């Protein structure tokens, strides 16, 4: 039955609302980053920049000398950018490595309490992060891991490991076990099978788990706000600091926010097909 015109219009209206809701803030950030400072207070508000400037980016990258609290903006931004990349990448690699080993064990190795242990790990997804911040902070203090790459990365891993483990278990369950049995008949050990047969076949699933972990770690705010106050401060914590007691630097906020958006956006754009195939890998055996 052909869809009526009103039904099609309703669908397209819903799509338009969804796009505006999700892409509107991103567009406004990008547009504001190339808008001169004096145009921010212009009335009426223009949804398209009336003038073009790269002054905010030049100040951000230290081409023009700009200081906030006596520290050059570029040195702050560069350190925060490096911190975001290091902690996100480290957490992603560690989380995928641990979850891949764990998911394979839950899928192929029979041991007592396997189902209960897996359910217990995945159930931690229901625990909000702020509920364990105080005990977690005390643990990190005792281990001298506050404001360190290792400490922040480990917290990210603990947060995203259950999701990654659940995803990769579904991926491994969908792989044909006959390939592993044939390799065992040829004398291959379990580790050889895991690294040379299972992991290559599970590539899309591993990539999907890596993307989800990276995006989650990159966008964290509450955890680094508490556990990364100085040396390992990421972009998500630095950008709000451009709001001072007497002045809000919209130019620096939008310029730095644009860069913070572009990096994860590029990851999703170039790895989107792996993300989709990886999420669907365990849906059909």
From TrEMBL:
CDD domains the record matches: TM_PBP2
Superkingdom of the source species: Bacteria
Keywords assigned by UniProt, alphabetized: Cell inner membrane, Cell membrane, Membrane, Sugar transport, Transmembrane, Transmembrane helix, Transport
Major site of localization recorded for this protein: membrane
SUPFAM superfamilies, per database record: MetI-like (SSF161098)
Membrane topology reported for the UniProt record: Multi-pass membrane protein
Subcellular location: Cell inner membrane; Cell membrane
ABC transmembrane type-1 domain span: 81-271
GO cellular component entries: plasma membrane
GO terms for biological process, alphabetical: transmembrane transport
Ranges that cross the membrane: 9-30, 80-104, 116-137, 149-172, 193-218, 250-271
PANTHER family: ABC TRANSPORTER PERMEASE PROTEIN MG189-RELATED-RELATED, SN-GLYCEROL-3-PHOSPHATE TRANSPORT SYSTEM PERMEASE PROTEIN UGPE
Function: Part of the ABC transporter complex UgpBAEC involved in sn-glycerol-3-phosphate (G3P) import. Probably responsible for the translocation of the substrate across the membrane.
Family: Belongs to the binding-protein-dependent transport system permease family.
Name of the protein in its database record: sn-glycerol-3-phosphate transport system permease protein UgpE
Native species: Rhizobium multihospitium
């Amino acid at each position: 039955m052909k869809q009526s015109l009103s039904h099609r219009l309703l669908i397209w209206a819903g799509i338009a609302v969804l796009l505006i809701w999700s892409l509107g803030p991103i567009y406004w950030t990008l547009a504001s980053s190339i808008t001169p400072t004096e145009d921010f207070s212009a009335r009426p508000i223009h949804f398209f920049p009336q003038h073009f400037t790269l002054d905010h980016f030049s100040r951000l990258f230290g081409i023009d000398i700009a200081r906030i609290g006596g520290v050059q903006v570029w040195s702050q931004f560069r350190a925060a950018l490096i911190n975001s990349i290091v902690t996100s990448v480290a957490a992603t690699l560690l989380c995928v490595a641990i979850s891949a080993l764990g998911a394979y064990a839950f899928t192929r190795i029979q041991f007592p309490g396997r189902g209960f242990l897996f359910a217990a790990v995945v159930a931690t997804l229901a625990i909000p992060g702020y509920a364990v911040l105080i005990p977690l902070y005390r643990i990190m203090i005792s281990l001298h891991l506050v404001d360190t790459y290792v400490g922040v990365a480990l917290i990210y891993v603990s947060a995203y490991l259950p999701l990654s483990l659940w995803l990769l278990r579904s991926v491994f369950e969908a792989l044909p076990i006959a390939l592993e049995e044939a390799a065992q008949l040829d004398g291959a050990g379990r580790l050889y099978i895991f690294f040379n047969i299972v992991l290559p076949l599970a590539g899309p699933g591993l990539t999907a788990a890596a993307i989800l972990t990276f995006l989650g770690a990159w966008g964290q705010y509450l955890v680094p706000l508490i556990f990364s106050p100085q040396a390992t401060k990421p972009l998500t914590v630095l950008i709000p600091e451009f709001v001072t007691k007497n002045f809000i630097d919209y130019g620096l906020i939008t310029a730095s926010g644009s860069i913070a958006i572009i990096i994860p956006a590029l990851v999703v754009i170039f790895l989107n097909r792996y993300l989709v195939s990886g999420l669907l890998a365990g849906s059909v055996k």
